[in-house]
Amino acid sequence: MEEKIIQALILIIPLLMAVTLHEVAHGYAAWMFGDPTAKLAGRLTLNPVRHLDPFGSLILPGLLIFSGSPAIFGYAKPVPVNFRNLRDPKLGTIVVSAAGVGVNFACALAAGLVYQIIAPFAGDSTIFLLAARLVYGFCIISVVLGVFNLLPIPPLDGSHILSALLPPGARQKYEQIGTFGVLILLVLLMTRSLDFLITAVISPLVRFFTGG
């Protein structure tokens, strides 16, 4: 049980960091394209408390960890974006939506490099071992967030990218499933219907970043 709690902390702490960076990236991208909504709301901050969603940041990942799910996923409160303020609504929507994913993959690369540096010392020091586990966890979480957010399921980023690319009629019909998006994603995760992403995409990317 003690190891389970340690494992949960090693995953939840990096998760809070990853979702915070993810949301801040969205806000900065929107600001660069002319929408100051997130900045005015005080959401361009690395303070995770400002971004926490009780269910998405704590309850959902906790349920997945203790249920033995191979994929640990979570989310923060979306930063407010007024897409009508964007100088180029179509391109801006795509860039803003992709910004969080891009930052997650950049974090995975950085974490993987740090892990490769400190992993050889993990057997000689408890501190290095804990640091290696935290960094490895951050790499995994960053890859998972990056990959899962590309799924075209509302409200994930992939759905906004796809919506921006669809013609108006198809876009309107597609966006109608948004109300059920979180429920659809939760069911897919809990029933392990997305396990193929772990074996085909996530695991190879983690091995690549960490030199495994």
From TrEMBL:
It is found in: Cell membrane. Residues 11-188 form the Peptidase M50 domain. GO terms for biological process: proteolysis. One of its GO terms (cellular component) is plasma membrane. Keywords: Cell membrane, Hydrolase, Membrane, Metal-binding, Metalloprotease, Protease, Transmembrane, Transmembrane helix, Zinc. The keyword Metal-binding applies. This is Zn-dependent protease. GO terms for molecular function: metal ion binding; metallopeptidase activity. The chain crosses the membrane at residues 9-34, 54-73, 94-118, 130-151, 180-206. The keyword Lipid biosynthesis does not apply. Its cofactor is Zn(2+). Belongs to the peptidase M50B family. Pfam families: Peptidase_M50. It is a multi-pass membrane protein.
